[in-house]
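Deliverable D2.4 — example input (structure tokens):
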């Protein structure tokens, strides 16, 4: 169950639209397990498959702060089917944009539909931090990053900073 390397901004893979997961094969289960391990190691509270370079509509989330509190949620082909009018503001970060945090406003409550690793179809509501986290991860499946929700000035500033860092690493 290896920890996988993370895809970091400005890697173009982060802008891909991911494809449906398809049948729940052993490969899909192994991918979900690697994603959880990679997320816990980082550490983070959510990860989309494209963040380890796999363009599949697979997301893992766990808000547990300690290993004892872990409650992994694995979402296959998740979709938001309803959002509340009320919003909440959260200072978001992203494992693909390390050490950058900024406040983002999103709907406070959402309804989502997804499949589980057991092949069940689930529809459920989420609110608060869980809703924020799930929306952030589902965005990744369509090549959207949390910096896209910021002003153009802020987005360009962080984009340039990471482009510069990537160039430094190359040379
Ligand atoms: Ni992210």
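Example output (designed residues):
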């Amino acid at each position: 169950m290896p920890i996988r390397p993370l895809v970091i901004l400005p890697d173009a893979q982060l802008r891909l639209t991911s494809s449906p997961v398809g049948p729940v094969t052993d490969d899909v289960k192994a991918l979900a397990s690697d994603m959880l391990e990679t997320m816990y190691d980082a550490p983070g509270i959510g990860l989309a498959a494209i963040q380890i370079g796999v363009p599949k509509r697979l997301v893992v989330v766990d808000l547990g702060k300690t290993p004892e509190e872990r409650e992994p949620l694995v979402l296959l082909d998740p979709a938001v089917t309803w959002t509340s009018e009320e919003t909440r503001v959260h200072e978001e970060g992203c494992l693909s944009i390390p050490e950058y945090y900024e406040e983002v406003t999103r709907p406070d409550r959402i309804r989502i539909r997804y499949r589980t690793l057991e092949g069940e179809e689930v529809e459920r509501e989420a609110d608060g931090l869980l809703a924020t986290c799930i929306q952030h991860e589902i965005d990744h499946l369509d090549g959207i990053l949390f910096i896209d929700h910021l002003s153009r000035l802020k987005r360009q500033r962080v984009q340039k900073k990471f482009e510069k860092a990537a160039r430094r690493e190359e040379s």
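The domain at 12-170 is CATH 3.90.45.10 (Peptide Deformylase).
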